[in-house]
Amino acid sequence: MITVKSGESISAIASDLRQQGLIRSAWGFKLYLKLAGRVIVQPGIYGPFYGNDSLPKIAGMIANGSTANATVTIPEGYTIAQITDALAAKAIASKDEFTTALNAFAPDYEFFQSKPAGSKSIEGFLFPDTYRLIKGEPAEAIRMMLDNFGVKYQGEIKPDLGDKNLYEVMIVASLIEKEAKTQTDREQVSAVLYNRIASGMRLDVDATVRYAINDWKRALTKDDLSIDSPYNTRRYAGLPPTPICNPGLASIKAALNPPDSPYYYYLTDYQGVTHYAKTLEEHNANKLKYL
Fold it and tell me: If we measure between CA atoms, which residue out of 126, 78, 128, 82 comes closest to residue 105?
């Protein structure tokens, strides 16, 4: 396998191939690429190559960029951990490589100005979409997802932001993404969350606990719900420290524009229908009726 880095010259690529014994003539390789019209080679991972492969075959694969890209779909509500798994499954980068790229990434976007000082997490801003990504370039994958969010921010988020703090909006949007499936419920859940925040109530959103333990499938236990984590909104009032997933635009819109609502509680029954309540008494009655 050969890795071509961003900005790497054809001479450097030829030298690498020659050192690995895959080609005998760097000049011939460069001539082939020149005839193919490839002055710049697309970065990524190419191969596999074998010792008996001909120069035209090796140069042709690199010239065509035939193994450099993979299409990856990032669903709405995926966490960075889930995105890491998705990229590893498509050989964009290993889990360690993507994590290293995340830790080394220096965000230089306007929309990060609302983040708390010292916060390094970019959870919430890797916009869910389908991407054509370059294998072996995890930093470029991060950049593409953030650029996509930047487009949405300038065109559809910033105009509605007003005096709201974007980072707090993204945290609320991530909770909505995990808690609601229809636009009506997204809006009502948004209203409930803001109502509870305004009144100083704990949010009691189980999805924040799931984020803390990184488990989105099994039933939560009492021990899970009592863990001492700043993400446990059953124990700590206010918002969790960061978004708990990367929300889609519908959830972000709901977080930006919560409707007026008298509700402070909600639950989802076994058929996926959400029921709202104004008081704890009403909420407990809903529990008995629907759960």
Answer: 126
Q: Cα(126)–Cα(42) distance, rounded to whole angstroms?
A: 23
Q: Which two tokens stand for residue 97?
A: 């490589």
Angle in degrees, CA 153, 157, 163, rounded to 5: 115
DSSP collapsed to 3 states, 82-141: HHHHHHHHCCCCCHHHHHHHHHHCCCCCHHHHHCCCCCCCCCCCCCCCEEEEECCCHHHH
Give the Cα-Cα-Cα angle 260, 266, 267 (nearest 5 degrees).
155
Region for residue 126 given its phi and psi (left: phi exceeds 0; alpha: psi -120 to 50; beta: otherwise): beta
Q: Which residues pair with 265 in a beta bridge?
A: 277
Helix (H, G, I), strand (E, B) or coil at 214: coil
Say which DSSP state 265 is in: E
Tens digits of pLDDT across the chain (291 residues)? 788 887 888 899 999 999 989 999 889 888 888 888 877 787 877 877 888 889 888 888 888 776 667 889 999 999 999 999 999 999 899 999 999 999 988 778 999 999 998 888 999 999 999 998 888 889 999 999 999 999 999 999 999 999 999 999 999 999 999 999 999 999 999 999 999 999 999 999 999 999 999 999 999 999 999 999 999 999 999 999 999 999 999 999 999 999 999 999 999 999 999 999 999 999 999 999 999
Please check whether residue 175 is in contact with residue 193, taking contact to mean a CB–CB distance below 8 angstroms: yes
265-268 and 274-277 strand pairing? antiparallel
71 is written with which tokens? 């299409």
CA distances from 94 to 24, 56, 145, 238, 265 (A): 31, 30, 18, 35, 41
d(CA 21, CA 139): 29
Q: What is the DSSP letter of 40?
A: S
Q: What is the largest CA-CA distance in the chain?
A: 81
User: Rg for the chain (alpha carbons), in Å?
Assistant: 24
Paired strand residues for 132: 71
